[in-house]
């Protein structure tokens, strides 16, 4: 049987070029807003800079975005600024997300201008834009989420093997990036389950691909399981199950926060407007179109997947973990607004386009402008919950007490200072020999016996200490 080919529509190449340019500009804007955060430096120093097998096998706490760090090390291991190269990977993923969203929305709307407007809402969403230039695996996982979602949606409609292969690769990469992909994977299972029960042939094809995917995921994590142990992945405080009495109040409280965060704080946490926006895609059930019912089904599934996995593990994730849910929800809400505006415009045929502009284009563009301005002065708090800019400025200022070109040794936990000293031109080493002129450690770390000849010079910013050899 000949292989069915998927035709890629490139007739609107101007739109794709425009979206690429906007995504690059928005991502670079995010880049210059924030210096490297602790998490970025931790990944670069302790994972990407190491041998690829060590990165694969050493699952340090709280986590290691393994595939992201392996790719960063393999592609850019020769480069000294692995935080910067990691940000490049995320920026490219952001471009890919924007193009994928536009292509999917155009397939639904059959209008490139309106699909472009809806894509802007997704691109500028705080959760999506915020990670667009961060040296972490979240933006790459979001790209996998959109590819998995779009390919599964297409497979249910057309049942082509190519879509299933794209879906399998997206799931494999999603799991390899961060194990929290379980939320997205559960959503896909819940979405496709009714179709598999009804269509046995589809079920067999789907299950073969899933079995192969899960087998590859197991093999990918096998080095980490063998050398780091299961407890490294499941026993740390960020994923350890909580008692149900403690979990349920936190789960309910954070649910309201997640809904508000999904729409970039447009509606206050717990407000009626936030719930209206969140429930809006359910209106698609009443349009009478199968395509809209599929979209609604996936919308329900992505949040049902979050609910099921959270209850199973009795743990509420960070908002960064739900970046896929936030982004896809924003896309589906934008599409719902388009459909509702289209239904209303049918009653004004002579001015239908004017009605669409008034009810869809202008509100969506206004929302995109709002998203661009939302909390931009506190991006570091919104992403990481701490003053990334203040920590960077304080550390780099206080490191000035050390003369340029000095030799400095660092403790295991002072990787943040190590990174900046290396970038500032100091002779930095993480393997202390006792011959270095200075030694930097965290305040709560003991002074090693080999450093007995060093005396405290000064406490510096963010609980670090500088010692000088006597």
Automatic annotation (TrEMBL):
It comes from the Bacteria. Keywords: Membrane, Transmembrane, Transmembrane helix. The chain crosses the membrane at residues 12-31, 88-106, 112-131, 138-156, 176-197, 209-233, 258-286, 298-316, 322-344, 351-370. This is Glycosyltransferase RgtA/B/C/D-like domain-containing protein. It comes from Nemorincola caseinilytica.
